[in-house]
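**Sequence, structure tokens**
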Amino acid sequence: VDRVICPLASREEEAHIGTVLTSLTDKSWFPIPGTKQAYHCRIRRLWPCEVVDIPGHQTHVCEVRIPAVSHVPRSGRSYSKSLYLRLPETLKRDYAALIQSYVDSKWWVEAPPTLATPTPPAQIFLVPPSSQARKSRLVIDFRELNKALPRAGAGGESPMLFHVLGLLRTESRETTLLCDCRSAFYKVRLVDLILTLESALGSFLSSRMGFGILFGPCGLN
């Protein structure tokens, strides 16, 4: 679950933030760079019935519209459970806890057992920590689905880190938005595509842009 540290803004700052969001909001879709107009995106206001990622603070959402995907026959095998069974008990607990964190964030929902989906389920497995200073992490194998999706680049040239730091220091603005990569991907909502995820502990559905999906990097652009 996200922890939010939000400073109190003055009226002038609140007005500026509102101006920024208004300028970003567009009722129409526009093509994402690097995708040959196959993928489109927009920023819009939240609907009253939608899941809110940051209660009390969030007012807008980012969406990526996916072109129609024809039925993709499943060609690979399910291997998430076999990999899970090889894990020691401590890592099995990590696996379950990480999956639960996605469910608690409402990024994944349990799939009905009889649900038929047009896309093959992506396999979920655990990568153990390489050292005590690191944590276990989940990896989602989207390779089968990625084969059926239109190509997508990174959405333009990625700036070097020193360029970003230099711009922050010399061209700082009134508002700076920061978020970690995991949260950034899952904050983006998908239109016209539901992801099917298969774990050793059950299957899930997601309407969020999972890390590892083909259009992920350009979707963050």
About this structure: DSSP finds seven helices and nine strands in the chain. The first helix runs from residue 11 to 24. The chain has a mean pLDDT of 84.
